[in-house]
Write a structure and sequence with these properties.
2 copies of one chain form a homodimer. Chain A is an alpha+beta fold and about 475 residues long. Chain A folds into 3 domains: about 5-115, Uridine Diphospho-n-acetylenolpyruvylglucosamine Reductase, domain 2; about 125-240, Uridine Diphospho-n-acetylenolpyruvylglucosamine Reductase, domain 3, CATH 3.30.465.10; about 245-435, Vanillyl-alcohol Oxidase, Chain A, domain 3 (3-Layer(aba) Sandwich), CATH 3.40.462.10. Helices cover about 40% and strands about 20% of the residues of chain A. Chain A contains 18 helices and 19 strands. Chain A has helices spanning about 5-10, 15-20, 30-40, 50-55, 75-90, 140-150, 165-170, 180, 185, 220-225, 255-270, 280-290, 310-325, 340-350, 350-355, 375-390, 415-435, 450-475; strands at about 45, 70, 95, 115, 125, 130-135, 155, 190-195, 200, 230-240, 240, 245-255, 275-280, 300-310, 335, 365, 370, 395-400, 405-410. In chain A, the strands form 4 sheets. In chain A, strands 12, 13, 14, 15, 16, 17, 18 and 19 form an 8-stranded antiparallel sheet that branches. The first copy, chain A, has a 5-stranded antiparallel sheet with strand order 5-6-10-8-9. Chain A has a 4-stranded mixed sheet with strand order 1-2-4-3, with helices on one face. The two termini of chain A are about 35 Å apart. Residues about 1-25 of chain A have low confidence and may be disordered. The interface between A and B is large, with 89 and 88 residues. Chains A, B: It catalyses: (R)-lactate + 2 Fe(III)-[cytochrome c] = 2 Fe(II)-[cytochrome c] + pyruvate + 2 H(+). Chains A, B: Its EC number is 1.1.2.4. Chains A, B: Its main location: mitochondrion. Chains A, B: One of its GO terms (biological process) is lactate catabolic process.
Chain lengths: ~475, ~475
C-alpha cells in the first residue's frame, strides 16, 4: 500500500495536519490502527494487552507503561510511512529493540505506537577490506558476531545482554570491551534514521563509510545515545575489528577493594592495552560462584583479558602480573582456551541474574556511574560503606578500566521502606560521582529515572541546548516522550 | 567594566534588542567599537586596515575579506560580554586562532568582529593520572607538547601547522598521527563554548572529564568540527596519551603508486598498530628533496612511524617490512634517534612550502578528500592521471592510513585559465571521492569553498537537519556566517 493510500484511509493528510495541535497524543482510534495495519499487514500488528505489557517495560524496576499498539515493520519505507501516520495524528512513537534497557527507555508514558524493530534483522553489506558492516536495526550483537566468524573480524562492543545493534546505538551502549575498543560512540560510522515526520536521514550521507571526515556537523554522534528521542534508527554502519591472533583471560583476587582498584589504575597508567578489566566485589563473586557453580575465592576480584600477537601478549601479561603482585593480588587463574574463557565471561555477564538469585523473587535495579579513573578507589570504598550503613544488598561489578561501575540493587518492591532507601542510595551514589567530576551514567542512559541528575550534571545552559535540539528535530515531542530531556 | 556598563555605552540593551532584526549586520559604528574597547581595553582592539586584512584570510587561495574590528579578549567573561554586544547589535562574530586554516574559515564575508583568541593561552589543569589537560583556546599544539615534556604524556593530534588547540577542535583537525590516536573528534573530552548570545555552555558539564558517558545528547561532538558557526570555544579538555617507550621512523620507496598504496592497505588489514603512514608521490618527494636539502629516491614513497614497547616494535617492523617487500618496496631507510626523526617529519610537514617553492611566487590550494581504504589505490592513480591531462602541478601527499590525501595545487592566480582548471580539477576530485563512498573533506573542513559539495555528500535531509541545528543555536546567523551551511 502506498503512503497516499494509507493516509487516505486515515482521513487525508491535510485534515491530519490541520488537527495536529488540537489533539495532543492518544489519537489512537480504530481508524488510525487500521491505517497502521494497512501498512504492516495483519500479522505485524497487535493491540493485545499481554503483548502491549510485554513492550511497556525493560529489565529495570520502572513500572510497566504499555503502548496502545505494537507494530513490527519490515523495511525502512514502512517505518517512514508509519512515522508519517503517527506524526499526522500526534501519536507518540517508541522504538523497541530487545527490551534489555535498564532505565525505562521503552516505557510508553504517553501511550502511542511501539515500533518493534526485530523483523528488520538483515546484514546488508559486509566489507572486510574496509572493516565495516551495515546492518538492519533488529539484529543482535551475538547474531552479528556469529555471522562474522569466518571473516577474521568481529564487533567488540558487548554490554552483556544480547541487545539489538540499533538499540545499542540508540543508548550509546558499551560494556566489557570498551576500555580497548571504545563504545558505540566510537564504533558507529553512519546511521539511517527515520525522523518523526517520516523523512529519511543518513547521518553521514547515503552509503558513506570513511574512517574520518570534517564535512559539517557530526549528526551521527548526535543520534548515538539519543535514546529514541530524535528518530527511529533503521540501519547502522559499524566499524569492525580484526580478531586478535591470541587471547588469554585471567582472574586475580585481592586482599581489599582498594588493592584491586589501585591495580586497575596502575595498569592503565602504564599504557598496557588491556582488552577487558572487570571488577567484582566479594558479594558479587559470592553470588557468581553460587549462580554459576564456580569456586573463586570470595574476595574483591579482577577479571582480565589480553588481546594481541603471541609475543605482545607475553609482555602485557608480565607487566600486569608485576603490578597486581605489588598490590598483594593472588597468582592469576588462567583461562586460555575458548571454552574456559566463555565460562569465565558467562559468569561475569550473568552478574545481574546472579545478584537477583541472592534473594529469590526480588527485583533488580542496576545503577551506573562513571568517574575519572583516579577517583575510582575512593568512590568504590565510600559506596561500599554506604551500602552497609543503608542495610541494602547491592553487589558491585564494573568496567573499572573506564572508571565505570554498577551496584546491582536487589530489592523487594513491596517493601516501601526498602524501595525508598534504594532510591536515596542511588541518588547519593550519582551525586557522589558528579562531585568527583564524573557522570551519572556511563552506559545505561538517562531514560526515565535520571532526568533530574542530567540537569545537575550538564547545567542550565547544557539542558537548554539539549531541549532546543529536541524541539527542533521533534517539534511535536512525539519521539519517545518523557525520556532524556 | 561590567556588561551593564558596556551595554549602556552602546545604547542600552532594550534598544539593541528592539532594533535587532531591522539592522542585519554592519552595525559597526564608533559607539559599538567604543563598547568593545571598554571591555577589552585600548591595547586589545584594532581597526587598522593592515591588521584587519591579516585576519581576513587563511593559508588558502580564498581572497581576503577583512573584518571591521579585531579584538583580543583575555578571559571567558570578556568573550561572553563581547558576544552579547555583537548579538544585541547584529554584528557577525568570527573566531580566529592562528589563521592556518585551508578552506577560508576566517574570511569575514559579512564584516563583523574577529575574536583573536591567542591572548587566552594558559594551560589550566594537567592531570597526569587521568590522562587529561584543560587548556585555553589560544595555546598551540607545539606549546602544549613542550609543556607536557616531563609528564610522560603527549597530545598526538598533529595537522602539520602549529595551530591553536581550539582552532583544531573547531575544524575537527587530524593529521599524521590520526591513524593510531584518532582525530580531534576522539580526543576532545569537554568544551567550554560562548554561545552567540553570550551564554556559557560546558558541552559535557562543568569540569567533567570521564572516559565515557551516556548522559544526554553528545554536545561535545556537535561543536567539534563546527568551524566557529555555532559558538566561540573558550576552553577545551583534551585526552592525553602516554609517550611510547620506543619510537622508530622509516622511509620506503616503491616502483609505483599502486605498490605504495597497496602496502598501506595491507598493513592496516593485518592490524599492525602503525602510528603514522604517509604517502608522497614522486613529484612531492622531488619538491621535498629540493626544499629540505634531502636526497630520497624520486619515487612514490611511504614515511612510516612505529610506537610501542621495544619488543612490540620489533614485531611491527618485521611484519611491515614483509608486506612492503612483497610489493617491491626498497629497504627501509631508518630514523631512530629524535634528531633524525625530526628531520624526516619536518620534511613531511614542509610539504606545503616545498610544493609552493616548485613555482616561486605561486599560490597554493591544498585539496582534501578521504575514501574507504580499499578505494585508495584506484582514486590516487586516477587523480594522478587527471593532473597530467589537466596540465596542472599538484604533488600528492596524504595520511593514507585513514584513506585521506591531498593534492597541493600550485598555481598562478593571475592565470585565469589555470585558476579555472584548478577549480574544475578539485571539484572532479571531490566528486570522484563521493562516488567511491568517500567524503569531500577528511580534515580541512567545508569553510567557504565546499558548501555545494557538502550538499551532494550529505543529501537533502542531511543539509536540512544541519540548517535546523544552525538556526536553533544561532538564530541571528551571526556566528561565522557563510561557512559550512
Amino acid at each position: 500500500m502506498t503512503l497516499q493510500a494509507a493516509i487516505r484511509l486515515n482521513g487525508g493528510l491535510s485534515n491530519c495536519v490541520n488537527k495536529a495541535w488540537s489533539c495532543r497524543f492518544y489519537c489512537v482510534n480504530t481508524e488510525f490502527v487500521d491505517g497502521l495495519r494497512a501498512v504492516v499487514g495483519e500479522t505485524n500488528i497487535s493491540t493485545a494487552l499481554a503483548v502491549r505489557e510485554q513492550h511497556g517495560r525493560d529489565e529495570s524496576m520502572h513500572s510497566c507503561k504499555p503502548p496502545d499498539v505494537v507494530i513490527w515493520p519490515e523495511n525502512v519505507h514502512q517505518v517512514s510511512t508509519l512515522a508519517k501516520l503517527c506524526y499526522c495524528n500526534n501519536v507518540a512513537i517508541i522504538p523497541y529493540g530487545t527490551g534489555t534497557g535498564l532505565e525505562g527507555g521503552v516505557s510508553a508514558i504517553k501511550g502511542g505506537v511501539c515500533f518493534n524493530m526485530t523483523k528488520m534483522d538483515k546484514i546488508l553489506n559486509l566489507n572486510a577490506e574496509d572493516f565495516y558492516v551495515t546492518v538492519e536495526p533488529g539484529i543482535t550483537r551475538k547474531a552479528l558476531n556469529s555471522y562474522l566468524r569466518d571473516s577474521g573480524l568481529w564487533f567488540p562492543v558487548d554490554p552483556g545482554a544480547d541487545a539489538s545493534l540499533c538499540g545499542m546505538a540508540a543508548t550509546g551502549a558499551s560494556g566489557t570491551n570498551a576500555v580497548r575498543y571504545g563504545t558505540m560512540r566510537e564504533n558507529v560510522i553512519n546511521l539511517e534514521v527515520v525522523l518523526p515526520d517520516g523523512r529519511i536521514l543518513n547521518t553521514a550521507g547515503k552509503d558513506r563509510r570513511f574512517r574520518k571526515t570534517s564535512a559539517g556537523y557530526n549528526l551521527t554522534s548526535m543520534f548515538v545515545g539519543s535514546e529514541g528521542t530524535l528518530g527511529i534508527i533503521t540501519k547502522a554502519s559499524l566499524r569492525l575489528h580484526g580478531i586478535p591472533e591470541a587471547v588469554v583471560s585471567a582472574v586475580c583476587a585481592f586482599p581489599s577493594i582498594q588493592a584491586a582498584v589501585d591495580s586497575t589504575v596502575q595498569i592503565l597508567q602504564c599504557g598496557i592495552p588491556i582488552a577487558r578489566i572487570e571488577f567484582l566485589d566479594d558479594v558479587m563473586i559470592d553470588a557468581c560462584n553460587k549462580f554459576n557453580g564456580l569456586s573463586y575465592p570470595v574476595l574483591p576480584t579482577l577479571f582480565l583479558e589480553f588481546h594481541g600477537t603471541k609475543n605482545g601478549l607475553r609482555e602485557q601479561v608480565q607487566q600486569t602480573e608485576e603490578i597486581t603482585q605489588i598490590n598483594g593480588g593472588s597468582d592469576f587463574t588462567w583461562a586460555k582456551d575458548q571454552e574456559e574463557r566463555n565460562k569465565l565471561w558467562t559468569a561475569r555477564h550473568n552478574a545481574w541474574y546472579a545478584a537477583l538469585a541472592l534473594r529469590p523473587g526480588s527485583r533488580g535495579y542496576s545503577t551506573d556511574v562513571c568517574v575519572p579513573i583516579s577517583r575510582l578507589p575512593e568512590i568504590i570504598v565510600e559506596t561500599r560503606k554506604d551500602l552497609i550503613e543503608s542495610n541494602l544488598t547491592g553487589p558491585i561489578a564494573g568496567h573499572v578500566g573506564d572508571g565505570n561501575f554498577h551496584c546491582i540493587m536487589v530489592l523487594n518492591l513491596d517493601d516501601k521502606d526498602e524501595v525508598r532507601r534504594v532510591k536515596e542510595f542511588t541518588d547519593r551514589l550519582a551525586r557522589r560521582a558528579l562531585a568527583m567530576n564524573g557522570t551519572c551514567t556511563g552506559e545505561h542512559g538517562i531514560g526515565l529515572g535520571k532526568r533530574q541528575l542530567l540537569e545537575e550534571e550538564i547545567g542550565e545552559v547544557g539542558i537548554a541546548t539539549m531541549k532546543q535540539i529536541k524541539a527542533t528535530l521533534d517539534p511535536k515531542n512525539l519521539m519517545n516522550p518523557g525520556k532524556v530531556v
